[in-house]
Predict the structure.
Amino acid sequence: MFSDLSAYAIGFEKLSLFLLGVGVFFSSLIFILMIVFCLRYRRKGEERGGGPTENLRLEILWGTVPFLIMILIFVWGARLYMQLFQAEDHQQNVSVLAKRWMWKFYYPGGKEEVNRLYVPAGETTQLMMISQDVIHSFFVPDLRMKKDVLPGRYIRLNLHPLKPGNYPIRCAEYCGTDHSQMGARLIVLPPKKFEEWLKSSAQPAEEMISGRGRRLFEKHQCASCHREGDTHLGPDLHGIFGKEISLEGGKKVVVDEDYLRTSILAPEAQIHQGYPSAMPPYQGQFTEEELLSLIKYLKEGDHD
Amino acid sequence: MTRKEARFGMWLFLSSELVFFSGFFLLYAVLRFRFMEDFQQASKHMYVFLGFLNTVILLTSSWLMALALHSTRRKKIFFLGGTFFLGLLFLGLKFYEYFLHAKEGIFPGFSVGISEKLNSGQELFMNLYVLGTGLHALHMIFGLIALASLLTLFYFHRDPTPDALERMGLYWHFVDLVWLFLFPLFYLLGVSK
Amino acid sequence: MIKSWLLTRDHKKIAWLYLGTITCFFAIGGLAATLMRLELLTPTEWLVTSDTYNRLFTLHGIIMVWFFLIPSIPNFFGNYLIPLMIGADDVLFPRLNLISWYVFVFGGAVTFYALLRGGVDTGWTFYPPYSTHFSRSFVALAASGVLISGFSSIFTGINFIVTIHYKRAEGMTWGRLPLFVWTHYATSLVMLLATPILAAVLVMICTERIFNIGFFDTTLGGDPILFQHLFWFYSHPAVYIMILPGMGVVSEIVATFCRKPIFGYWFVVWSSLAIALVGFLVWGHHMFVSGQSPYASLIFSFLSMAVAVPSAIKVFNWLATLYKGAISFEAPMLYGLGFIGLFTIGGLTGVFVAALGFDVHVHDTYFVVAHFHYIMVGGAVMAYMGALHLWWPKMTGRMYPENQARLAAVVLFLGFNVTFFPQFILGILGNPRRYHTYPPEFAWLHQISTLGAVLLAVGYIYPLYYLSRSFFKGEKAGKNPWQAGGLEWTTSSPPPEKNFEEPVEVVAGPYALHARKGISP
């Protein structure tokens, strides 16, 4: 039951032990007092109860002591939690698509898996997750890790498992009929084996996700505005991923997956400075998977 | 039951109504923050003159309602009747406005004639507008039913008590107050630029 | 005769009307739970399909929260007892009281109709986008039923507040109010100010579903997290509506069966008010992994710790009342002691889930399910059962059979723990909630839980039997079988229509016997 699969899990176990201790202590205290008092002060005849009916010192004591312990619990829990929000260098990237009722994983270099998440042990893998439909939740009990996966925006989660193994992934936000069947496996491989796996049986370039992205780019004639050389209609998208650009109004952003996704679906909200607000919104025209493929294409370029 | 007690009860009910409308205004605030420009653009579709007229109508009705509290029996009936009439007028104008929006093609769910394209932010504005003014109109209708009951009691010489009138007044003023927030937030948003 | 009931303005009759209705709803919600626990005997599907199972847990949640727990103590015991406890002849707005029952029944009928048409499968929490765009069930209908019943809460809240303010008898100062009245006052504040947000958010869900508006739809510019904020802004205070009245009952039980006043009266009063107030500030603790800002999560976690303090204070004050008391162990006291023990566990595990780092793992697992059932069933329903037994002689003029009642209380207590303690373990092991099927290694824990549920059912059905029987065959009860303080015990059992034969004048604090002017024990 004890998990030492990641630093977070180990931190969790320590916190849990403390909580269990506090819980056992206070419930025992209360149960024992209750039983002792009930036995000791049993009514014998028709007498009324006696004893004090107020005591300021006691009130302060049993208000403050629990409060202080709870502050301790709060701080401990908060520190563990905030680890999840620290920017961390990650060595691997996996895109995750949650849809009723399966998980799809997209790996760098073009591999895709349904319901199987492969990650290397000892390294940080950043998941970029989105839902095709309703709210799901990505839950890996052995890592003591959980994050809701939302429609409409990318949610990032870092995993850092310490040792190899095969662990369950479960959906933890009710999503309809087969919510309880929406499971997957987390397969942690030693780094070398992971590299081998990543390179093995890779599909031909055209079938890979970025190839599909390129085909979509061509099909929707994005190049009519977005191509090399200045068209004055839209920025050239070659190498744009990761660049810092200015938006209309002066605000600066770094072009990342979220920016690209919103630019495709609702561009008018964040127009690149110097270009007209001429791009039509593509809301409703792409599935999340197609968006991921377009973004991959724009990010990784064409693998010819 | 004294007047103080009855009034207190109505104030408590109104506080719950306040919380209800706050939920709506919170939704408005969040979505407006998200779609600053779209909201301003969409507000230009509002019929500001009609809205202004309705505001005056409602304020006048509240004034008549206040007058009704402290006058003779005959005058009470007159003032309450006036309030009722103005309330009906308000609703009539409101639905006329809705009809005009529908003709323009921008009333959510109903477009008669050519449909003008609204983007999502603008459509959300229109949805909120209909939801907000619709909920307000619903409260107006309840108020009118209550007013009609009071007037009926007068007609049958089973005069309502002073605190019944006072409670009616409190409710009516509250509904008026809600409108006074709806008006600038929806109608006056697009006026400046 | 029927007319005298259906058109009554007597708060006591209205209370009985409520009892009939909420007992029916409890049976329906309990039936849903029974079917769920039977299904969960095996890891894979055997009794019902997934769609049915999903409708069952939704129904169980909706019925138990809105149609049983929220009205249970306030609308039966509160309605019956508050006027009696303050020396009044009725509530201040008797007609509003009757209307609140009709509204409740109407809301229940609409929800029941949704059930008959096929039910709803969104969970009682109605999260979009599932509820607005994907569910093939009667969402708007069920939501409307709940919305309507919410008005019953609001009207009850108004009535209690004005009644407590203006109908107290001569000499019944605020400092002499029984704690049961104080907790209902605090509850009424929450009912009044939290329920309208539920109305607002349900209206939004219905309009979004019917008219395809985009408040919560990301493709139309909306945000599903906004729903969660609005929903929990009501639903967290709602859980305090469910537990505060129970705490009031426990105070009355403990005072009665220790034959002394509750220790630390004013601290218990202020704790109740503090719970009501701070309870409005903690809603985000349901959303720690939702994608909300971590800084918001920090604030909510901190405040959630704060709201646990007044509850802890109450528990210690109850214990201190036991000290040097003259304690007897009739059925109400057994339920009261059970409440204290189980509420302690429920409350402590609540502090656990309020700890951010811990919640990440156990959120949306059986751990949370166990936590809230410890409070709601181990707490609130136990308090309800205790109240039922404490005031049964007063309300019916008959005594229940004491030994049978004690047996039922013990069976309930055991059944409850066997049902729900294993669920803490299931949660820690990673069994998410709302799961129709589960990994086979969890089967033994589910099976123990279902076994417990059988005992639990017995613990509810048995009192139904002997209490009904006692209506006709029970020993006649006098004015004050428990030798308790409190104005309700100074009048006959059951009380006359106007509650008191002579005008009441109060000359001493609550729980002080032999201190009512002109009234002998």
The mean pLDDT of chain A is 90.
